[in-house]
Design a protein that fits this description.
215 residues; alpha+beta; Aminopeptidase; nine-stranded mixed beta sheet; 32% helix
């Protein structure tokens, strides 16, 4: 018996021209935590609803570990969130998540991600999200993918536009005790088929399908 017999998600791989996305092992998680401690964007901005930016480096690192452990422990086929590390040339550069509730019925996923600051501006954010969109639409049969970004998060919004997302309304949140507008975005399967700028290969998916609520 190996870990894959009990947790096949550990064998899932998404491979793009420059990246491998995979479920993190302990060394990957340590590298991701260190990346978070260094900061993932300019301290003057707060692109997340959770006040992660304003935490200390030690708090950010610990929260990364706890977040991944919590998502693993709470996994259910009807309510799941898959958080993968993005690895380039053996180096962890960031993390890409995809999740869903009642996926077999709703056929809708949501995504979220971040990159270490030294890896910004190289198109890796597009490549990471394209990988999980391929998993969602080509691998799992999704019909919709949703995302969101604050109005001043130009980089995230640019990735969404490049991948074919359309505007889907707004939400108002409180960030640093100030009102902030979150722009919702939606991508249909038909729109995704017209916007696939990155080739993606998948490994290990068949054994994982029941874990996503698919038989």
């Amino acid at each position: 018996m190996t870990l894959l017999n009990h947790w096949p998600l550990a064998g899932l791989r998404l491979i793009t021209p420059r990246l491998e996305l995979r479920s993190p092992d302990p060394d990957d998680l340590a590298a991701l935590a260190a990346l978070a401690a260094e900061g993932v964007h300019e301290p003057a901005v707060q692109p997340f609803t959770v006040a992660w930016t304003d935490a200390t480096p030690e708090q950010r690192a610990r929260s990364v570990l706890q977040y991944h452990w919590r998502r693993w422990g709470e996994w259910q086929p009807e309510n799941w969130e898959l958080n993968l590390v993005a690895v380039r040339d053996g180096v962890v550069v960031g993390t890409q998540g995809i999740g869903a509730r009642d996926f077999p019925v709703r056929r809708e996923v949501s995504t979220g991600s971040w990159l270490g600051r030294t890896h910004h501006g190289q198109g890796l954010g597009t490549e990471m999200r394209a990988a999980v969109l391929h998993l969602a639409f080509a691998g799992l049969g999704a019909q919709h993918a949703v995302s969101g970004a604050y109005a001043d998060n130009a980089a995230s919004l640019a990735v969404s536009r490049k991948l074919g997302y359309r505007e889907d309304g707004i939400e108002r949140h409180a960030v640093r005790a100030e009102p902030a507008v979150l722009r919702r975005l939606r991508l249909t399967a038909e729109q995704w088929q017209r916007h696939q700028p990155v080739s993606v290969e998948m490994e290990g998916l068949p054994d994982c399908l029941p874990w996503f609520g698919l038989v």
